[in-house]
Structures are given as structure tokens and as C-alpha cells.
Backbone:
């Protein structure tokens, strides 16, 4: 087994090679760098996702326990994280998920479809299509944030603020998950962003109380008035913070990764360019399998678990390597080949069980709408970056292209 470091930028060049070795040789692997087990096979991961054997709510508390005299900044941030739906089990998780369903109903994406088309047209009009532009930073990044602002009715918040907030939380989460002791400077930036976000959202909630609008935030405020919801304003704010963090970065990286996949696979490129409406949905599904923005999720064992002769002790940290499961050769035919034809099984990049991504449908529809407009009238896309050596994110929490120069004919 080759030496590897999940948190190193160099891991991007060997990621799928390491996954393949682990699936074949040690599908349950003790990764001492993070004192965690890596689970790499599809069926093993699905079993754990749908079981009561693992939990999500130990990560934050366990991290604090392992830090001697944690800085007050870290405690403040983790108090927010502990309120996120993802780090809770029933009954708190059930309460949060039921309440936040307001945001992710199918009707909401229908409301913003025309606005998405306008956003894409506007962004592309500002790009030098013939001579080249950075797709990620000119289109994918800002549009993902703008759609969130529109959905939530937070247009008064500057777009640059969205970027800064999202980036600082992503940087902190990367450091918090992989580092034995979180970096105080990074924590300071995240704490400042969390405070700014909380104040901005509380102010917006107060405005909606006085003057409701036809937006999702008004719907959430209305839900707060329901005495059976059992949810507080602070808890709503913390779910919104999580939504800004994940709801911006995942679509951004999914857009960039999708474009990279078709540019590096001529057959897929030709299929898509010649039949966009049919292949855009298949493109999204295959990219989520082949080059997903989320490569792993974390859990902790609620009891001793035995898999393939290995004992995962109660309380042990477990990494479910979704990116590996999506290339499991016992599940997918020719998994290392990017193929826009329908697969026999579906990717698991949105997780599974009670913690399956609540925003999966919304994200998928959002990307379909963006690409439908982006590819409209496009005859040729020329890469102006090194396809064999793209600029990948240095953040192992998210896997995606950071810079992507192209030209369009």
C-alpha cells in the first residue's frame, strides 16, 4: 500500500488509485493520520449509512474532548456546529429536517428557473467568450451564491459577503476535521464570519416578521410561529449557516467538475454538445459518481462493529469514502470510465439513510437549469488550462476545480 495523506493537495493525483488498492487489499483500513477507519466498498458503506451502528453527533464533542484547554473561539464555533442538522440524531435531527423541508420542496426551484437563466446570461455576457474566461470564478462560484440569495430572499447581503462566509467556514471545517488541534487563526476568521452571519440572518428574520415576502425565509419565519415546531430562532439561523456553507460550495464544484469531465472525455463531449437536453441530466449523475464534490463523510461507531475481520470499536471515528464506493468494480461496470449512458446502479454521493442530503433534488435541478442555459447555442468549448493537471481545491472536505480557463465558440 502506498503512503498517502488525505489532507495533502497531492492526494488529488493519486486519489482513485489509492481507493482501488484499499478496496482490493484493505477495505476496512486504519488511517493513523486521523485516528480513523476508512471504509471504501460500496456495499459496506451503504450498510452503515442505513444502519443504527454509526452516528454523526460524536464528531464535535469528541474533537473538543481531545483538545486540551480549548480556546473559547473553538467552543463558540462548535456550539454552532452542534446545532447543525447533520451533527444531530433523532429526535433533534427529525425536528430540524422536518422544519427545513420548507426550503427544499420542488416548487421552489420552479420559482427561480427564469431567474437562473437570467443570471447565466448576465454572467456570460460579462465574459470574454472568444478569448477566454475562468468558468469557475466567473460563472460557477458567483451563480451558486446568487441562487442561494434569491431562494432565501437575502439579496440585500452583498455577494462578496457570501463568498467570504462560505470560504471561511469551509476552511475551518477542513482544519477542524483533519487537524488534531484546530488552528486559532483559522478559527478567528470562522468565528468572525459566524457572528456576521448570525446578525445578518437575525436582522432579516425581524424584517420578515414585520413585512413577509414570497421567499423561503418568510416561509421559515412563518414556521417559527407554529408552536408545534419546537425550534428556536437561533436554531433556524444555524441551519441557514450550514445551508450557506454546503449550498454554495457543492453546486460550485459540481459545475466545474462537470465541465472538466466532458472536456477530458471526447465521446461524452460530443454526445452532450449534440444533444444537450437529453444528456445534461445524465452528465450530472455521472459526475456525481465519477468526480463528486464530496468524497467522504464521517461517522462514529455507536457500538463495536465487525467488518471483513476488522473490529471497529465503539466510539471510533469512521470515514465513509463515497468517492471510492462510486468506483467499486463489483457494483459498477467499467467504473474508471466516464460514461454518459445510464448506469446500472446510482451513485451515493448524497449519502443515505436518515442523513441523506436534504438538498439533493434542489442541487440537481439547479445544475440542470444552469447548464441548460450555459450550453445553449454553444458549438465548441476549448480548454485553456492543463487538462492533465487542473487546479484542484486544497480543501479535502470539498473536491473540485478552483480555476478553469476556457473559450467558447
Residues:
Amino acid at each position: 500500500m502506498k503512503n498517502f495523506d488525505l489532507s495533502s493537495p497531492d492526494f488529488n493525483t493519486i486519489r482513485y488509485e489509492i481507493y482501488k488498492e484499499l478496496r482490493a487489499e484493505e477495505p476496512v483500513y486504519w488511517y493513523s493520520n486521523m485516528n480513523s477507519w476508512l471504509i471504501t466498498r460500496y456495499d459496506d458503506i451503504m450498510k452503515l449509512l442505513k444502519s443504527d451502528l454509526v452516528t454523526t453527533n460524536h464528531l464535535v464533542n469528541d474533537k473538543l474532548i481531545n483538545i486540551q484547554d480549548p480556546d473559547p473561539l473553538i467552543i463558540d464555533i462548535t456550539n454552532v456546529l452542534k446545532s447543525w442538522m447533520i451533527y444531530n440524531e433523532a429526535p433533534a435531527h427529525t425536528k430540524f429536517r422536518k422544519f427545513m423541508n420548507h426550503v427544499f420542496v420542488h416548487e421552489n426551484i420552479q420559482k427561480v428557473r427564469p431567474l437562473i437563466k437570467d443570471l447565466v446570461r448576465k454572467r456570460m455576457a460579462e465574459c470574454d467568450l472568444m478569448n477566454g474566461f475562468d468558468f469557475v470564478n466567473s460563472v460557477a462560484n458567483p451563480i451558486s451564491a446568487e441562487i442561494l440569495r434569491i431562494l432565501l430572499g437575502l439579496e440585500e447581503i452583498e455577494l462578496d459577503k457570501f463568498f467570504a462566509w462560505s470560504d471561511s467556514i469551509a476552511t475551518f471545517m477542513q482544519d477542524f476535521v483533519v487537524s488534531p488541534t484546530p488552528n486559532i487563526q483559522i478559527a478567528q476568521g470562522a468565528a468572525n464570519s459566524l457572528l456576521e452571519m448570525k446578525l445578518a440572518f437575525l436582522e432579516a428574520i425581524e424584517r420578515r416578521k414585520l413585512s413577509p415576502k414570497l421567499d423561503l425565509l418568510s416561509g421559515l419565519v412563518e414556521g417559527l410561529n407554529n408552536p408545534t415546531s419546537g425550534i428556536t430562532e437561533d436554531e433556524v439561523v444555524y441551519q441557514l449557516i450550514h445551508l450557506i456553507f454546503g449550498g454554495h460550495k457543492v453546486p460550485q464544484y459540481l459545475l466545474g467538475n462537470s465541465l472538466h469531465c466532458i472536456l477530458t472525455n471526447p465521446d461524452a463531449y460530443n454526445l452532450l454538445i449534440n444533444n444537450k437536453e437529453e444528456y445534461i441530466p445524465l452528465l450530472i449523475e455521472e459526475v456525481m459518481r465519477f468526480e463528486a464534490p464530496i468524497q467522504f463523510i464521517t461517522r462514529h461507531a455507536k457500538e463495536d462493529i465487525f467488518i471483513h475481520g476488522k473490529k471497529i470499536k465503539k466510539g471510533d471515528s469512521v470515514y465513509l469514502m463515497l468517492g471510492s464506493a462510486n468506483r467499486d468494480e463489483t457494483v459498477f461496470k467499467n467504473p474508471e470510465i466516464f460514461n454518459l449512458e445510464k448506469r446500472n446502479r446510482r451513485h451515493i454521493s448524497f449519502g443515505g439513510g436518515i442523513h441523506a442530503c436534504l438538498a439533493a433534488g434542489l442541487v440537481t435541478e439547479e445544475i440542470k437549469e444552469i447548464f441548460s442555459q450555459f450550453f445553449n447555442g454553444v458549438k465548441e468549448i476549448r480548454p485553456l488550462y492543463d487538462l492533465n493537471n487542473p487546479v484542484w481545491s486544497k480543501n479535502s472536505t470539498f473536491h473540485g476545480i478552483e480555476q478553469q480557463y476556457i473559450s467558447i465558440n
About this structure: The chain has a mean pLDDT of 90. The CA atoms of residues 175 and 182 lie 6 Å apart. DSSP finds 15 helices and twelve strands in the chain. Residues 11-408 form a domain with the Cytochrome p450 fold (CATH 1.10.630.10).
